[in-house]
Amino acid sequence: MAPHAQSGEPAIRAERLTKTYRYTEQSPGLTGALKGLFRPDRRERLDG
Description:
It is built from three helices and no strands. By secondary structure, the protein is mostly helical.
């Protein structure tokens, strides 16, 4: 693991999110859900 990660969780969280997002990119449904959750504008999620 990166040395800077031991200082705080945000780095690990960001890394995890990146990996998860990359993995779920294969599934349009999950990607859309993730976009809706992580984007400030949740209306997009309803528009789906």
